[in-house]
């Protein structure tokens, strides 16, 4: 947070410096657009092949083959979730929230992609449907499905509040991944990374610049759906903050389960589909 009163003197040309118009850091005009029409055609006639229920204040892993769809669904009450994605065959390739934010903005919706870490930099998943896309940005500057927050974690909780809280999303994801891969939670937490905050309604306070949250607009039946670009291992935590209307590491908040469904397209549609290539940089890094 910036100080209320700056300590440095304001220069004579301060107004002119502030008036300089910004430019977009990463113009995406050269980025190939997702083929949503083809994705939606693939989705027609797809068969559900897996369903995983994520208990409140806990996490579960799920797997999605390349070219399949997965849906995160609200099934009981307003609840936000923290999503991690990895290449199912190589955990070093994982969701890169910072680059995704730089390319698509602070919040994601239909047509945006979840990009993987360097040196791969390819779409791990593309959002193909979002029942909350109507929300847009509200009067507070908040929107849904953010790539701002890192995930609630027990280290920050201890720093700010004390105590040993074990159901922050970081710990939930570590336990789920440990159970999936036969690791200890301490071993697994090295692979836990910054998340897509599914259904979470967030923004930045215009006065202080601080990360803010408010009650999620999600209701039972709402969902966000993705097309997997590569074979994915996912983990989803049902945040201990519930709808995050007050706090996000709490045993007092009303919390509800979330559901992940996986859908397999028809064989002919899947046979005609091609996964996205890895990033094209040659990795020589200059002389």
- Portion in beta strands: 25-35%
Helix count, DSSP H or I runs of 4 or more residues: 7
The helical percent reads: 10-25%
The major beta sheet can be summarized as:
7 strands, antiparallel
Number of strands: 13
Instruction: Look at the helices and sheets and give the structural class.
Output: alpha+beta
Distance between the termini: 41 Å
Q: Give the assembly state of these chains.
A: single chain
Regions with little confidence, pLDDT below 50 for 5+ residues:
none
State mean pLDDT (0 to 100 scale): 96
Order of helices and strands: HHEEEEEHEEEHHHEEEEEH
- The Rg value, from CA coordinates, equals 20 Å
Q: Structurally, how many domains make up the residues?
A: 1
- Indicate the overall shape: globular
Task: Give a description of the structure.
- The protein is an alpha+beta fold and 287 residues long.
- The protein has one domain.
- It has seven helices and 13 strands.
- Strands 2, 4, 5, 8, 9, 10 and 12 form a seven-stranded antiparallel sheet that branches. The chain has a six-stranded antiparallel sheet with strand order 1-13-3-11-7-6.
- It is globular.
Salient structural properties:
287 residues, 7-stranded antiparallel beta sheet, globular, alpha+beta, 13 strands, 18% helix
Short description:
With about 290 residues, the protein is an alpha+beta fold. The protein is about 20% helix and about 30% strand. It has 7 helices and 13 strands.
